Amino acid sequence: MEHRLVSLEGRNLRGAALKHYAARRRHAAHGPVAQTLWTQLQVQKIG
């Protein structure tokens, strides 16, 4: 099983590229899913 986003682009749904930004509170508790997501975002950081 691949863990990646899948495009929904098709005949009735036009594709687009958008910039995404992520932020989180530094001094707050984060669960395991949020921590894993944040780590992946840092590893794959672009620009």
Could you list some keywords that capture this structure?
1 helix; mainly alpha; elongated; 47 residues
Describe the structure.
- The protein is an all-alpha fold.
- 26% of the residues lie in helices and 0% in strands.
- The protein has one helix and no strands.
- The longest helix has 12 residues, at 32-43.
Strand fraction: under 5%
Radius of gyration: 15 Å
Residue-averaged pLDDT: 84
Low-confidence stretches: none
Overview in brief:
With 47 residues, the chain is mainly α.
Q: How would you summarize the topology of this molecule?
A:
Layout: H1 32-43
